[in-house]
Amino acid sequence: MNNQEIISRKGEGLAANQRFRETINAILRQVALYTTVGLMCLFAFFPFLVLMINTFREDQDLYRPQNFPFFFNDPPTLFHITQLFKETNYVVFLRNSVFVGLVVVLITLAIAIPAAYSLARLTGKWGERAGIAIFMVYLVPPTLLFLPLFRMVVALHLNDTIWSLIVVYPTISIPFSTWLLMGFFKSIPKDLEEAAMVDGYSRAAAFLKVVMPLSLSGIIAVVVFTFTLTLHEFIYALTFISSSAQRTLSVGVPTELIRGDVFFWQGLSAATIIVAIPVGILYNLVLDRLISGFTMGAVKG
Questions:
Q1: Which of the chain's ends, N or C, has fewer CB atoms near its CB within 10 Å?
Q2: Where in the chain are the domains?
Q3: 51 close to 273: Cβ distance less than 8 angstroms
Q4: Which fold does the domain 80-300 belong to in CATH?
Q5: pLDDT tens across 229-238, in order?
């Protein structure tokens, strides 16, 4: 074997070793990535896991200190879920929350979409300043507003009804939704609308047939934001409504399932999971469009 062959084989061996090291490094990077993501997912899912376990636990299993808290020491039971639906107004709270959420979403879309389009397309720099001013309204803390809003609700004879929430919640959702949609409408080239108008469409028709389909991600972001806002808002729901039959989930559940210093933990866990699972599924179904809507609105706004 001559020197050239020896050098060639050494080179091939070094190249093979280099490829092997690169393969091992790539595998290690993938393992580190998926391990990190898995731990983050486990960390995020852990509260829901505890809630699901507690929902089906017996009282003696839950309150016995020596029991391990993350699995069933006694056989699971459906008693607390049955109690939640039969002995509390949970179904009423759920129905009220869904009704308020849907109506507020419709009101928000009906006002925020034309307002955002007008400010983004028809008013120039004054539209941008007006959009910022509208967004500043969203930043006002609810604790400063619930007293004057309560006087308005009483004047309209809507106190102690879910209609008081339907009147008040759009004051929170519309400013943010308008600001978000403004940024999204600005990201859509004007040339598309102008081309549609050249083809004979009116501005309104061009908006409905061209702009609205392209704005679907922003609209979905507004719908999800508004609906989840109505689900978790607490201050106004507590201030404006006192009767159990008119309450929503955010106030009704703790009122019914916390009595003095007695906490019905299994019922509270069940009430939380029943709402969280559909909302989580909804978020996952529209996650790509939701991220697109928020990021486009934030970047272009």
A1: N
A2: 3-77, 80-300
A3: yes
A4: MetI-like fold (1.10.3720)
A5: 898 888 888 8
